[in-house]
Each structure stands twice: as C-alpha cells, then as structure tokens.
Design a protein that fits this description.
mainly alpha, 9 helices, about 190 residues, DNA-binding, homodimer
DNA sequence: ACTTATCCGGGACGCCTGTCCCGCTTAGTT
DNA sequence: AACTAAGCGGGACAGGCGTCCCGGATAAGT
C-alpha cells in the first residue's frame, strides 16, 4: 500500500533506537578496547548513558555485543593482511603482519581477547570475518614457509600463542618491540 | 608447669585440625594444578570432604591458600634452578631451565598462574621463595648473556611473557616442544 | 569423668555478574 | 490530534563467588 515494495508494512526502526544502538556500540568499542572482554555490561551502559535493558534490547547477549565489536575489528585486520600481502614479498609479508597484529592487540584488548580466545570463543561462531582472517593468516604463513623464511612445522595456533606472549608485555613499548623481534627470530628456520 | 618450656601452656593444635588442614592443602594442590587459581574454594572443600568454614579457618583467605600451594612449588623450582646451574655450563643452563619451567607450568597450572600473575600477584607479597626464584632466574639469565648465548637486552619479564606464550599451547605436547624451540631460538643474539 | 578451648558444618551475608520483564514514554503514521 | 507499536528505565531475578559466624561436637588436659 505504501511506497514500500515489501509485503509487510512493518514499522521501521525508530530513530532514537538507532541512535542509542550506535552510542552503545561506540562505547563498547572504547570499553572493550581499554579493558578487554571482561568489562561489565553495566559499565558500557553507564558510559553510553543508557540502561542495561537498552543494551540487552539491541544486543541480546553480551557475547553478541562483543562479537559485533570484535568482528568489526577483525574485518579491518583482514583488509590490512590483504594490503600487506599485495605490497610486500612473501618472504617478509608474514613478519610485517605479525608485528602489526601484536601492536594492534596491545592497543585494542578486544582484538587481543578475540585472537587468544579470552572470554568468548569466536572461532566457534562461523563468521566470514573469522574464516577470512584464518585464510589470510594461513596464506601469509604458508607463503613465508615456502619462501623459507619461517620454519615449516609451525601452524596458526603457534602464531596465536606467540602473539599472546608478546601482548603480555604491552605495558612497555620497547619491550614489546623486543618481544616481536624475539618471536620473529624464533620463527625462522633453525641453522639459517 | 608442664614439660613445655614456653611461658604459655596454650593448647597445641588439635589432631583433627591438623589432619583437615593437611587434607585441604593436598586437595588444593591437586585442584590448583588441574584448573589454576580460578578454582572455587567450595570445590576444594568438597574434594577434601570438609566444609568451606574449615578451609577458611586454616587459610583465612583464598589468596593465603593459593600462596601456600604456589610457594611450595616455587621452592621446588628454585632447587631445580640451583641444580641446573651447578650441573650445566652457563651457556646452556638457562635454556634448560626455561624448558623445565614451561613444562612445569603446563603440567601444574598453579605454577603457571603464579608465574604469569594470573589470579593473585604473588610478587607483591615479599617471600623468600619468590625472591629466591627471582634471583635464580636473574642469575641463570645474566650468565647466559655473559656467555653470549642470550641477547643482552632481555629481562626476566620478557622470559615470563615467553613462558606465558608457550603454555598457551599446553594442549599439545609436540606443539609445546616446538614453542620452546622457537622461544629459545628467538632469545639467541641476532646474526649469531 | 569432667571441663574447656578448639574445631567443624552449614548456612547467612554481601558483592558482582548477565539476563529478563513491566509499566511508562515517545516517535512515526494516519 | 490521535493512535500504536517501538523503545526505554530501572529494578527483579538467578547464579556464582569469597568471607563470616553461630550452635553443636570433640579432642586434649585434669
């Protein structure tokens, strides 16, 4: 009947609802980035200036909210991985991406928690972003292995563990850079 | 008056009390080893066949119980460190100790949590075991550095971070060994 | 045997968490 | 302006945690 082409003229999302959802998402980004997945829902609601009920309305569970934040960031990681893969030689692209991942995880605890599986297991939830990330990581890694700059027996789980180790030193920038060097050196084939 | 030489004839600890304390400690060892510092006090009490009040009586706080368990294990680590330092050349002793620490932390989550500071910050509580451990670690590390087998700019916090990374792969024995190799290789001086 | 300080069980308490729900408000449509 | 469904606030609820406390039990000393 109306200008809507759909069969149902269901009322569209209200403007204030959309605004609040955006604000919650915005504050969730900041809060998860600052304190990781362990930050309480009430705290995010308080920062966004809404009630906990409003948060739950837009994101029925805490995991849903965390996923919305983390997957968005991971999509960004995937794009960066593709950029690096396009720009850099296979022999070094992986190392560049590794350093990028560590710095990103240290700056944004949501990324770190998502990668290391702290809080929620995002791997279980099938998502294009997650699988794309896995594919990008595997691609960079295997190409470095074929180029002979990374030992052949490591897998992506090893890489995640190394990242977890590096972000344990996120309190000190120089130490972090040192950890990246140590990890990358260790990944090179032995007696190279 | 009695055979006691002390000034106060305070009643000694009751036999059942000592028995229960030993049982709690025993089960706490097993539980913390299996699941880390996050295991609930109630669970330890249940396993020991006592009530939570009994646990609290002997160990007024959860941190006290965890400390009793963890410090005992750390004393063992210190003895092992001294053994390794006595038996092995400075150039390799550190690496042996590192591998030992990782395997120990993977087998006993209480050790891992104590080392990486998960749960409680045992470093804050001044204890001879903790300071002895720090001294042993620093000694092995600096001697390896003087021998030229470990890069000069790493400190003990870096080592702990690497251990944290290695125990993230404690689900797979082969992967763990691989992680130890990677970490040790990375610790060697560059272009060496 | 009797006394008494020690000890124990089990529940209460307070705190924190994520999730759900009800009554009121408000934006969008007619 | 009126109507209605979407949306909101704030509190209720359930579960889990560490800690504390009281009435009854019991081991140790006399």
């Amino acid at each position: 009947m109306s200008t809507d082409a759909g069969a149902k003229a269901a009322r569209p999302q209200r403007a204030d609802g959309r605004r609040n959802q955006a604000r919650v998402l915005e504050e969730a980004f900041a809060a998860f980035a600052a304190h990781g997945a362990a930050v309480p829902i009430r705290e995010i609601a308080r920062r966004a200036g809404v009630s906990t009920g409003t948060v739950t309305r837009h994101f029925p569970t805490k995991e849903a909210l965390f996923r919305a934040v983390a997957l968005h960031r991971i999509e960004h990681l995937v794009r960066s991985a593709e950029d690096i893969a396009a720009r850099e030689a296979p022999a070094t692209a992986f190392f560049t991406f590794f350093a990028f991942l560590v710095r990103q995880s240290a700056a944004d605890h949501a990324v770190g928690d998502a990668l290391t599986g702290a809080g929620f297991d995002l791997q279980a939830a099938a998502s294009t972003a997650i699988s794309d990330f896995g594919a990008a990581m595997t691609g960079l890694l295997s190409r470095a292995q074929q180029a002979g700059t990374v030992r052949a027996d490591v897998d992506t789980a090893d890489i995640k563990a190394l990242i977890a180790g590096c972000i344990a030193r996120d309190d000190d920038g120089a130490a972090q850079q040192r950890m990246i060097e140590i990890a990358c050196d260790g990944l090179r084939p032995r007696r190279g």
